[in-house]
Amino acid sequence: MTAFHCIAIETETAARFRATGLDDRGNPLRRIIAMPGGGYPCRHCLRLARPGEAMLLGSYDLPKPLGIYWTPSPILLHEAECPRSDAADEIAPIVRANPLVSVRAYDGEHQCLYDLGHVCAGAEIDASLARALDDPRTAFVNIHTARPGCLLVRVERGRGGQRLVEDESGLRLISTDPEPVASFRAPRARPRTGAVGIETVASLDRAPTSLTRPGTPRRPRRRGTRRPGADSSSPRGRPVL
Ligand SMILES: [Zn+2]
């Protein structure tokens, strides 16, 4: 398989979530204690929480793709500091452990390459990920949970934010971040007025009512444009894997 790197969320983002108790959309984070049975993937250390560990649930603005395919995603994060994952050529443990993941490949213009999309068990992702990374059109791949659609990790060739290229001087790494998309204006997260920070719930399974309030999702909006179909994908009430 092409050399690759699973890219966790930025440490700055994790530190900001923990310090402010607010997510990228200005929602108070939900505090969840991991229960036995798994299903609590930290997007910073890329490991599943152990039972009893405190996790924070919030909305994260994906750095890629920008433009038409941009989306925020619910993510879980260890409440306590954890090391940012930094392993090359290794499928992230939170991907391996997930029963059903979605591979989404994008080109250099951040357009989704539908023909490379694939849904499979995380334990069996190698072939579909290799197919996406080996395709010369692919600039990066996002892996989501297939059922609720939450981002698990971004995958790029070579090291994070860099790509291996071969020219007359041999193999070398070039930077791939940031990749400008001229037509995209990133939505700004606005803190909620009167936000009180982290809310505590016992678990995802035991507090479904709490999970559906009060966070009215803030949707990205480009000035002067319509958003057909934007109201059809509310995350309300969905469990987060
Ligand atoms: Zn962690």
Describe the structure.
By secondary structure, the chain is an alpha+beta fold. The chain has one domain (4-177, 194-215). It is built from 4 helices and 11 strands, in the order βαβββαββαβββββα. The strands form 3 sheets. A 5-stranded antiparallel beta sheet has the order 1-8-7-5-6, with helices on one face. Strands 4-3-2-11 form a 4-stranded mixed beta sheet, with helices on one face. The protein has a two-stranded antiparallel sheet with strand order 9-10. It is globular and about 50 Å long. Residues 42, 44-45, 78, 82 line the site of zinc ion (ZN).
How would you summarize the topology of this molecule?
Elements: E1 4-7, H1 11-20, E2 30-33, E3 54-61, E4 72-78, H2 93-96, E5 101-106, E6 118-120, H3 126-134, E7 140-145, E8 151-157, E9 162-167, E10 170-175, E11 199-201, H4 208-211
This protein binds zinc ion.
Residues 42, 44-45, 78, 82 line the site of zinc ion.
C-alpha-based Rg, rounded: 18 Å
Number of helices: 4
Tell me the β content. 15-25%
Total discrete domains: 1
How widely separated are the two ends?
A: 27 Å
Q: How many individual β-strands?
A: 11
Based on Cα principal axes, name the global outline.
globular
List the defining traits of the structure above:
241 residues, alpha+beta, disordered C terminus, binds zinc ion, single chain, five-stranded antiparallel β-sheet, four-stranded mixed β-sheet
